[in-house]
Structures are given as structure tokens and as C-alpha cells.
TrEMBL record:
This is Chemerin-like receptor 2. Keywords: Cell membrane, Disulfide bond, G-protein coupled receptor, Glycoprotein, Membrane, Receptor, Transducer, Transmembrane, Transmembrane helix. It holds the Pfam family 7tm_1. It comes from the Eukaryota. It is found in: Cell membrane. It comes from Podarcis lilfordi.
Length: 354
């Protein structure tokens, strides 16, 4: 996922007498800072969410979505020290081929799993609030577990090319790089595979989820005029904040990944991408530590008391979020009650009518 990921011919510019990189650019130093922050905040933050959602409370549909989103982020931040070491040592990979493959796979796996879970949460919100009767009948724990398993399998399949193409190469200066070995010699095949994987990643991991979420939230916002439930829902604003932050963090990386395709034909892009992609990658990766922070900032307790702990603030927001899982049941019961009252009225009218 770093700026040197997709070029095999690019590394041919190294000469035998080239020394290892002795200093980092400002962009690379900033990238290291972002990655360090993501690791230091992401590990305890996501661990707290997993502990609360996974072990302290009963399972609900909503809590399962947020639990698995935290698991995806937690797995990723655990691998961040490998990438931090890679950049800090001047892009020297000392961990071997299999960790090279695993590290890149986990990065892609996290991106796809996170965006798929966010898409599922958005669709779940839409069905939950707009189609309460359908939600009451089909929005069950069993169906949720099935969808969660499907998302994990789908994210694994789409991220699996990294397990095949990622490779290590030791240069003449004894620096080992971790890169995408699309083909040893065939430049046309290198370009083709690079284009295919980049566009699949963009469409499946960014464009389609983005359009789906825009449609879902546009339809939900249209209901604001009809009911105050949506605007007062802690879950609605929590999910919306998580979705917006995800796309703000990942949009620069997706843009530069597409621009990177032009580097096969224009050397001008090499200098730009050398600084731009490390920053965009670090900006994307820091998203994995932001969700627990958002839960804290959105907590009502934060507005009234600053003496509570981080975990208590997270727990309070997640409790409000998980509690909203009963909305459909309340709507369904209300509809059933109204239908029952209507039936009783019709019966009474029938008895007194001549």
C-alpha cells in the first residue's frame, strides 16, 4: 500500500553503488507520525469497543455491525509496526516474503471489510427506519450473522491478490523491498494487472459503497420533515459521522492510486507520487483509530461532564447506539396496536349497525 507498491520496472533505476536511503523526506516523516498515532490510539480504542460490544453486552443487530467494524480496524492496527519499520529504515523490508504478503493483504482486507460493514450499516439504517415491517420480520440475529460472514469472505477474496502478487526483492545495495511483482519481464502484463486491480479496488472498495450510502442517507434525510425520530437518533448521527470520516480519509488515497496508473507512461508522476502517496496512505490508515474517538465526541456525557474516563464515554455512546435497535419493534407494535384498535372498532360498529 505504500508509494512503491505497484512498480516493478521502477526499481530498475537502482544502481549497484546506490547507498540505502539515509534520510527521509518531510512527507515520509509525516507519514510515520500519522502511522504512530494510528497505532497508539487504534489498539486501545478498538480493544475497548470490542470488549464492550463483544463481552459486556447482549448481542443486537446494531452492536454486531459495530463490533465487526472494530475487529477489522483492530486487526489492521496490529500490523502497523511492520509498515512503520519499513518506512523508518528507508524502505528496507527485513521481515521476509510471507509477512510482506500478509501485511499488504491485511491493509486491503481492512479497507474492504470496513467499507462493506459501513455500507451494510447504512442499508440497515434505511430498512430499519423506512421499512419497519420488513425490518421486524427479516432483521434478525441469524440473518445478521450470515451477512457478517458474507462480508468477511468477500473482503478476503477481493484482498487476496496481494497474497499472490506481493513479493520481496533484494537490490544490489542489500536493501530488500516489498512490492507488487505483477510479472518479471512483461511490461504490458504489468500495466494490465496494475490497471485491473486498481479499478477493482476503486469500484468495489470506494465508488459503489459511496453511491449506496449517498442514496441511503438521502432517502433518510427526506424523512426528517415527516418525523423527529431521525434527527434525534444518536445512532443516525454516529453512523453518519463514521461514514463521512471514512470517505474523507480514504478519498485522497483512491485519487492518487488512479493517478499512479499514469506513471507507467509519464515519469513526471514519479516525483509527485513519491511524496503524495505516503501521505494519502497514512491519512487513510489513521481512519482505523478514529471511530472510538468519534464515539467519545458524540457522547452526551462529554457535554455535561469531563471527569469520566475514555472507556465510559465510549460505553455510553455505544449503549445509546445499541438501544436504538428496538425502534423497529416499537414501530411494529404501534402498527399492530393501531390495526387491532381498527378491527375492534369495525366489530363494534358492525354489532350496533342494523
Amino acid at each position: 500500500m505504500d508509494y512503491e507498491d505497484n512498480f516493478t520496472e521502477y526499481f530498475g533505476t537502482y544502481e549497484e553503488d546506490d547507498p540505502p536511503v539515509s534520510h527521509l523526506t518531510h512527507a515520509q516523516v509525516a507519514s510515520l507520525v500519522f502511522h504512530g498515532v494510528a497505532f497508539l490510539l487504534g489498539v486501545p480504542g478498538n480493544a475497548i469497543v470490542i470488549w464492550i460490544m463483544g463481552f459486556k453486552w447482549d448481542k443486537t443487530v446494531t452492536s454486531l455491525w459495530f463490533l465487526n467494524l472494530a475487529i477489522a480496524d483492530f486487526i489492521f492496527v496490529l500490523f502497523l509496526p511492520l509498515y512503520i519499520t519499513y518506512v523508518a529504515t528507508g524502505f528496507h523490508w527485513p521481515f521476509g516474503k510471507w509477512l510482506c504478503k500478509a501485511n499488504s493483504f491485511i491493509a486491503l482486507f481492512n479497507m474492504f471489510a470496513s467499507v462493506f460493514f459501513l455500507t451494510a450499516i447504512s442499508l440497515d439504517r434505511y430498512v430499519h427506519l423506512i421499512h419497519p415491517v420488513f425490518s421486524y420480520r427479516h432483521r434478525t440475529l441469524k440473518n445478521t450473522f450470515f451477512m457478517i460472514a458474507f462480508i468477511w469472505v468477500l473482503a478476503t477474496l477481493i484482498g487476496s491478490p496481494a497474497l499472490y502478487f506481493r513479493d520481496t526483492l533484494t537490490l544490489h545495495n542489500n536493501v530488500t523491498i516489498c512490492y507488487n511483482n505483477f510479472h518479471p519481464t512483461d511490461v504490458d502484463l504489468i500495466i494490465l494487472r496494475h490497471h485491473v486491480l486498481t479499478w477493482v479496488r476503486f469500484i468495489c472498495g470506494y465508488l459503489f459503497p459511496l453511491l449506496t450510502m449517498i442514496v441511503c442517507y438521502s432517502l433518510l434525510v427526506c424523512q426528517v420533515k415527516k418525523t423527529a425520530t431521525l434527527t434525534s437518533s444518536r445512532l443516525f448521527w454516529t453512523v453518519l459521522a463514521v461514514v463521512v470520516v471514512f470517505f474523507v480519509c480514504w478519498t485522497p488515497y483512491q485519487i492518487f492510486s488512479i493517478l499512479e496508473l499514469s506513471a507507467h507512461h509519464d515519469n513526471y508522476w514519479h516525483d509527485l507520487l513519491r511524496d503524495a502517496i505516503p501521505l494519502s496512505v497514512s491519512f487513510a490508515f489513521i481512519n482505523s483509530c478514529l471511530n472510538p474517538i468519534l464515539y467519545v465526541l458524540l457522547s452526551k456525557k462529554l457535554q455535561s461532564c469531563f471527569s469520566v474516563t475514555f472507556s465510559e464515554l465510549v460505553k455510553h455512546t455505544l449503549w445509546e447506539v445499541s438501544r436504538s435497535g428496538t425502534v423497529s419493534e416499537q414501530v411494529w407494535n404501534s402498527l399492530s396496536l393501531q390495526q387491532g384498535e381498527a378491527s375492534e372498532l369495525e366489530t363494534s360498529l358492525g354489532e350496533i349497525s342494523p
